[in-house]
What does this fold into?
Amino acid sequence: MLGVGLAAVCGGHGTCGRCRVTLISGWLSETTSIEHELIPPHDLAHGVRLACQATPLSDCVINVSPESLTTTQRIQVEGLQAIQRIDPPVTSHRVTVPPAGLNDMRADEDRILTELSATDGIDCKVLDIDAARDLPRLLRDGDWTVGVSVRGGEIVAVGPWPSQSLGLAVDLGTTKIAAYLLDLTTGATLGARGAMNPQIRYGEDVVARLTHALSRPEGAEELAAEAVTAVNDLAVSLARDAGVDPSRILEAVIVGNTAMHHLLLQLPVEQLARAPYVPAVTGALDLKARDIRVDIARGAYVHLPPNIAGFVGADHVAMLLASGITSNSDPMLAIDIGTNTEVCLAAGGHLTTVSCASGPAFEGGHIRDGMRAAPGAIEHVKIDGDEVHLQVVDDAEPTGICGSGILDALAELTAHGVVDAVGRLSANHPRVLRSGKSHEFVLVPSTQRGGRPPVSVTQGDIRQLQLAKAAIATGVEALLAHERLEALELSSVIIAGAFGTYIDISSAIAIGMLPPLPLERFRQTGNAAGVGAKMTLVSTSARSDAIELARKAEYLELATATDFMKRFVDNTRLAPYTSHGG
Amino acid sequence: MLGVGLAAVCGGHGTCGRCRVTLISGWLSETTSIEHELIPPHDLAHGVRLACQATPLSDCVINVSPESLTTTQRIQVEGLQAIQRIDPPVTSHRVTVPPAGLNDMRADEDRILTELSATDGIDCKVLDIDAARDLPRLLRDGDWTVGVSVRGGEIVAVGPWPSQSLGLAVDLGTTKIAAYLLDLTTGATLGARGAMNPQIRYGEDVVARLTHALSRPEGAEELAAEAVTAVNDLAVSLARDAGVDPSRILEAVIVGNTAMHHLLLQLPVEQLARAPYVPAVTGALDLKARDIRVDIARGAYVHLPPNIAGFVGADHVAMLLASGITSNSDPMLAIDIGTNTEVCLAAGGHLTTVSCASGPAFEGGHIRDGMRAAPGAIEHVKIDGDEVHLQVVDDAEPTGICGSGILDALAELTAHGVVDAVGRLSANHPRVLRSGKSHEFVLVPSTQRGGRPPVSVTQGDIRQLQLAKAAIATGVEALLAHERLEALELSSVIIAGAFGTYIDISSAIAIGMLPPLPLERFRQTGNAAGVGAKMTLVSTSARSDAIELARKAEYLELATATDFMKRFVDNTRLAPYTSHGG
It folds into this structure.
């Protein structure tokens, strides 16, 4: 399981033929009648198969064509650095007890609790029932010495001594899941893995997922099961890679947006899906892993840091934590760009957040030739007269354009006057083609694609980008207005998230998506939510900080902000911010 | 489901024909081919059926012949009195919150926690995940008013307001299960029900159950499932009888001996089944009902009071609690007679317990014509010259003899010199028959039973009784010796449990099973364990008392007591205690 997302329009039923792969080496199961129907004989003979039909019978090398990928493999799981603050919620201790005999018939539990108190000065009140089930055999097999893992006055696990104390941190994104295996004692990251969120087959975005959960009685159960299975698979893979036992994972932290959080926990989402978008729960949760079917140590807890509001979740809190933002920071903006873009302003002792419906354009959605940042995606664009210079992911043949590419293209087109401030594509450039009633700017002409249609930026794409950037700019503007700040007063702007890592900040400033600050005030931090999840995994005080952040953060509902619609429309202009950030 | 245990030698496979019942009124399913094979046509025509084959199609009145009963229906579930001390662990509160809107987008959890603190002064830190799942719909359906049930800083359930707060107390015996439904607010008992412990099909006594649990991997799982299902069935029946919803049961208490406790919780029993008989856990436990699959409110807890030792369990603690014994009591003995008899001595500021392997004789086991106290069981015996006067359960035709009957018979036979002090049955009484190499004393001659074999007390039965009573007397004696007390110094003796309720104390004194005290010093308390379970259900301070009782109680291992075997042999003599209680 490499965590590569394949297109499966039919849902894996072998009817769409979209999930073609080519066997390079190794053995797959026999070809099926479905494959004989959907794959030309010549291709079949050269190893082309349908991923939904073929089962690997050995280690295989498979070539996946870019068109079959649902999305990028650029899942951000980097950040292998050790976390600095280590005060883990679970600590493990060697305990040796007096052997049982007719002159000492105390319960095993009594033996352990007494010794833990006497030797380590740790007074536990509770022995988890699953730990109690393991204890008698471990004590006798270990010649009356065991490792005891303690969390807030409770023994959550017992194991042989010595053995490792591991933790799992998960950033459960709508599209991607990043998971990290950490040593709870040292804080060292032992491994990192990414996977697509398999809920994606029930809908690409949050709204589609919520709709699925509400569409039928088992909908919510299905979504929860998909997420939990993916997390469990990642845990198993990480443990295998590190050569450790998944049952030694003694604590997990999962961060996600509020919808992912609710769907994972099977909390009701009806009230979250429609105005006033009220979460069932925003406070931090500590749940027994078994209660949500997460397969780590059976008595372990899963910690879920707090959400701020219906559309500002724990992933944003984790990002703020990792970015070092506090209410006492100098004026500072943190932006997590996605289908939903969360923005937080720290200023004047306050933390204020907004959520902007920026839409899927930055992820290639609703863009004619849009795609995620997979090989073949145009990720950067430079226009030089009639020439167009492209940077393509993995230097592959360009097959589409991803978010950072569209952003560059729009900035370049605006700079060169091919697109005007209201977003109209001029017909007066040799690369502009008429297509139907509209125009498109050709990045890769049909002639360079063996006669296949060109890869272009269309007039419709430009409208999508205008809406997306206007949403973000309006959010930023509303926050600045709320604190009566000018954009230039911002000491720094943090851009987090996968998309934000790859964009050219100058392009974003040029079209008025980000405020016009000196470039050195911007920091592109990658998967800061993942880093925040790791911080809360190994540090109790980091958890307190996250809770404090969420408690202090005020949520500003854009729909109720003054002049929201007027400002939004103004912000569709393709030009740098002017006054008051807008 | 009346909780009537039927004989099922074949395990319900329709091959033994033992489970015959007769339909008096109502409708049952069609007769099966198995029934046509095993029941004579004449009987079939008169409504005789096999319980394993027939399914009720309406309310039915069924006659169960005594031979088909595995055991008595005299399950002690009486004690409908209200409990005096009411400080329940769960309290319910009406909470009305401000409605959600675009100007108040707080999470439902936040709304409830804030209001509960502001209005009732109750600061909760935790909202159970299942309660959180129920909350949004209940809030909106209830026009922003709900009932919130709180337990130690945690909201364990939410429900419509008003609604009842109920509790379930269970005495999980090896043979019988007694369950009580209580109103947590008033302490009133709303209903009581009994059932056989269905684990019985895996073995009649504790040792057989432990053996089954260890015999194969799924053994422990099977036993736990049987017990849990029985508890759940009782809860459903009690709730139905009382016209309430089982999901309004917000707390449960289960007491049992240590083996029943471990088997219910699937705690390991290997170390409990062999010397030095060490429990995995003796401390009180508070487990989420869902963790042990008990179907009450999903976020509710099951409280399991503490055990004292491997063979002195929480049922004994509950009995001590109900009996009002404390370490400061005047010298006082409490005896719970069963296959295993637990005895506790309170004296001199100490509580000391022993466990005596008294065997199944008092429950009719290993007694040739023994049976449990079901209709047809001889429960009291009086010998008057050649005449024998019998008291039979339900005044039915006598079909066997139960524990209290055997005890009486032995006392009478001893008093009349038919049995001597060493237990030998004289041949010189007209009712004594030679049977094989041995003798038997006939209670119901064959002539009165239509030619069927007589109902008798055999020489072998007497030997069984001697072993049983010697075990108890030796336990009592060891306790008295431990505290350097004479039997006569005991201010009172409590006899608890089903068997203890029905015995004639004089008979027990006559054969030297109980100490020779004035009868007014004895108290037969019935199912005191059930009463203790109810007390701990509705009172947090009673729970503390139970924990304190268990903590103070010292367990004395008889096998390591001085002269144990010599004393035991001496105590097989059929005569009242002499010195030092022995």
Observations:
- Confidence is low (pLDDT under 50) at residues 1-5, 7-11, 66-82 of chain B.
- The first strand of chain B starts at residue 20 and ends at 25.
